[in-house]
Amino acid sequence: MKLTKIIFFMFMLLLGACGDNEETDSSADVMYHHNFRPYYHYTPQANWMNDPNGMVYYDGKYHLFYQYYPYGTTWGPMHWAHTVSTDLFHWEDQGIKLYPDELGYIFSGSAVADLNNTAGFKTGNETPLVAIFTHHQNITGRQVQSLAYSNDKGATWTKYENNPVLDNPGIADFRDPKVIWHEASQKWIMVLAVFDHIRIYSSPNLKAWELESEFGKNVGYHGGVWECPDLFPLKDEQGTVKWVMLVSLGGNENSEPNGGSATQYFIGEFDGSSFVSENEEILWADYGIDNYAGVTWSNIPEIDGRRLFIGWMSNWAYANVVPESGWRSGMTVPREIKLKKRQDNSYVLHFSPVDELNTLVDPQKTIAPETPANQIHMDYHEIIAGGSYQVEMEIIPAEIDQFTISIGNELEDLTISYSKTDGEFTIDRSNSGYVSFNNLFMHEIHCDYQATGATLPLTLLVDQNSVELFINQGEKVMTTLFFPRYNYKFFRLDGNTQNEFVNSLTIKALKKSMIR
Ligand code: FRU
Question: Signal peptide location in the record (predicted)?
Fold first, then answer.
């Protein structure tokens, strides 16, 4: 299907002129986003959330813990809250599992299923789940690594009596342990963020840790403190295995790629002791500014061959002041990471929404317009009334130099533009609603991209207060928050050409998976 010159899908909401939702709207769907709650992204029921932690897949369930402050909507003494899911979208909250104690707040970390009971925590028939996290002593700032374990599939947790298992050698930033089982050397490997680099430790039993090597002092981007590392193997379609290191970067307003917090990655080799990066360039997991501290699930490759990622959908530059009320922050859509070999034989990662997202598609509310026909106006309310939908489209780069996707209402919009000449995507949210709570929030967001193929596939996920753009099957990603004053009512695609530049376009409503 080809669409004409200017594709213009403007589907006016049947509810009439926009006004302040609280005063004028009575529809449950419209009321829903008063406090910007997403439909299908994980959010805490109430209060503050940051990093995803302790992500482990065990006995058919995805466990997600997260940094949580239960007494307010800004960052405070950290706890681990817990939620579980069988499909990565419908989450059942399990409450708080780790509370601060005399060793400090419970900072970020990971969890593993200790299948061989190497730590000796097993008491019954269940495989012990073991959490490895940072204890942060608030007054001194001292950070050490500690353990907790569960013998009932994560329902209850006991802190290890001889914590910490890795003491602080006199380094201020010494945190966020991510542990994996290294099959070839039959030992546990921990990557730990240490201010401007990563330390790699090994252990036979999760309790005694030995320093193996250091990585990153002279590699990668250093415009901020390194946090939340992850190390894992990944196989490409030809069967080549590479090792991937993710490192989040707590930057400032001027940090790359777009200011504030971001996550870079390295692809290379790991021999059980040292990691060597083969990157020639700096690679980012996301350019959209609102995806931080993301890590991958443990015990996944052994189970279904997928490597799954989730990130905290915010940015430290403004996370504490975004206009959500009663709760703060969501997680990104869970993503599958794929390893791809480029034409020059270097490797990159592609991040795409997990296939489970398709189960939220409402087939009754899917439209693939042949032309910008009038009857589609009717469907807009059906499809996008809740502001939670997915757009799949294929652009023909040879036919177009610049196009713009905009979503918005009569007064506000967020635009995503592509310029072939400039070779970049730009997101402009300066007129997207509430923006003035932070300077960086008003900046344009850029992502270099040269469209080289015959078609350019784009997937756009919209969910009340976020857009996630997956460019060319996740080769580059942009995750960006926005806070509309009034309900967004339209999706548009405009091109600066007479040519037919759209190969296909489908809009699919996505059902609510989070009951909040
Ligand atoms: C990253 C981070 C981690 C730390 C946690 C504290 O966002 O700063 O380094 O463990 O948040 O909440």
Answer: 1-19
Nearest-atom number in ligand 1 for the CA of 51 is 7
Q: Which residues have C-beta atoms less than 6 Å from ligand 1?
A: 50-51, 67, 78, 107-108, 134, 175-176, 227-228, 293
Let me know if 51 is a catalytic residue. Answer: yes
- What does the block give as tokens for 140? 């001194």
How large is the ipTM? 0.99
Q: Which of 184, 227, 216, 217 is nearest to 202 (CA)?
A: 184
Report how far residue 131's alpha carbon sits from residue 154's, in angstroms, rounded to the nearest whole number: 10
Along the 516 residues of the chain, how does pLDDT read in single tens digits? 444 433 433 333 222 223 333 333 334 334 344 579 999 999 999 999 999 999 999 999 999 999 999 999 999 999 999 999 999 999 999 999 999 999 999 999 999 999 999 999 999 999 999 999 999 999 999 999 999 999 999 999 999 999 999 999 999 999 999 999 999 999 999 999 999 999 999 999 999 999 999 999 999 999 999 999 999 999 999 999 999 999 999 999 999 999 999 999 999 999 999 999 999 999 999 999 999 999 999 887 766 689 999 999 999 999 999 999 899 999 999 999 999 999 999 999 999 999 999 999 988 888 777 644 332 333 344 456 668 999 999 999 998 899 999 898 889 999 999 999 999 999 999 999 999 999 999 999 999 999 999 999 999 999 999 999 999 999 999 999 999 998 888 888 888 887 888 888 888 989 999 888
Q: Which of 51, 132, 144, 314 to mutate to test the pocket of ligand 1 (most atoms within 8 A of CB)?
A: 51
Closest among 21, 71, 64 to 43, alpha carbons compared: 64
Cα distance between residue 349 and residue 344, in whole Å: 15
Find out if CATH 2.60.120.560 is the number for domain 355-510.
Answer: yes
Whole-model pTM: value is: 0.92
Q: What letter would DSSP give residue 274?
A: -
Q: Where are the domains of the chain?
A: 42-332, 355-510
